[in-house]
Amino acid sequence: MSLRPTLETRLAQPTMEGAGVHLHRAFGFHDPSELDPFLLFDDFRNDRPENYYRGFPWHPHRGIETITYVLNGTVDHGDSLGNEGTLSAGDVQWMTAGSGILHQEMPKGNINGQMHGFQLWANLPGSLKMTAPRYQDVQSKEIPVVIDDDGTRVKVIVGEFWGKKGPVDGIAADPQYLDIFVPAGVKKTFKIDTYRRAFAYVFEGAGAFADASAPTGVLLEKEVMGEEVNIRDMSGNRTLIRFGTGDEVTVQAGPEGIRFLLISGAPIQEPVAWHGPIVMNTQAELQQAMRELRNGTFIKPAH
């Protein structure tokens, strides 16, 4: 077994998207190889309705998959396939845009005006970029939750973990998407297949992730799995942790516990031509998509 080194920790940055939604972006529109197959991750958390109610009106997607996970409030959605509905707390929507889809998402807060959710973009390989669009809407009650003896709780949204399988399937990136809570003071190790790229996103509490290397400025050392390894201090809220290669991630929860998403997927390792919500392999394919948007042929007829 080998511990994954912590390559980087950084705070998500405030930005604005859609028709004026205030959110925090952990990564996106920078280096698409950094967390391949994942392209973008947004945290849309707000308790001021004026900062999110205008939402994300009709917009196109091609060549990617979008994963929306709601923690608080609701999101009304619809698309050009005729799907429509409402995501509530704990629900997940996984949309395979494929050859092209028009989509809208309109967040609404809970009774107190609070709204919280995440959106992740996963790339599609060139062989699937023009596949037929597909849509999966999963209710919270369908998502398995595993609780360990020490109180660690894992919600298995996608992939297999601790003997449970998430309800979302058939995803090109072969991802694992886990919502994890580790209680105060507990140290926990999680296994991840070596071939996957992996990151964590901390959104509640605080803790520290073990690091197999010995970078300058590390303040603490902890005993992990019988070996001395470095532990990096970490503030917690809205923090992205990017891991290197290995098959284990270890976290030491702080005094209030720590809750984070642990996400991994198989890298695609293909060229990326990217403009907004359209991601192709070449500039020619990207230009073709933009022409189709202009002339009204972007949505492909069903076969």
SSE blueprint:
Blueprint: E1 6-11, E2 13-17, E3 21-27, E4 38-46, E5 56-61, E6 64-72, E7 74-79, E8 84-87, E9 92-96, E10 101-108, E11 115-123, E12 134-138, E13 145-147, E14 153-158, E15 160-161, E16 164-165, E17 176-182, E18 187-191, E19 197-211, E20 220-224, E21 227-232, E22 239-243, E23 248-265, E24 273-275, E25 278-280, H1 283-295
Antiparallel strand pairs: 1-22, 2-3, 3-4, 4-11, 5-10, 6-9, 6-11, 7-8, 7-10, 9-12, 13-14, 14-17, 15-16, 17-23, 18-23, 19-21, 19-22, 19-23, 20-21, 24-25
Number of strands: 25
Report, as a whole number of angstroms, the end-to-end distance. Answer: 47 Å
Average pLDDT score = 89
> What structural class do the secondary elements suggest?
mainly beta
Oligomeric state as shown:
single chain
H/E element sequence: EEEEEEEEEEEEEEEEEEEEEEEEEH
Q: How much of the polypeptide forms β-strand, as a percent range?
A: over 45%
Q: What is the CATH-assigned architecture?
A: Sandwich
Classified in CATH, the superfamily is Jelly Rolls
Specify Rg, calculated over alpha carbons.
19 Å
Low-confidence stretches: 214-233
Tally of helical segments: 1
CATH third-tier fold name? Jelly Rolls
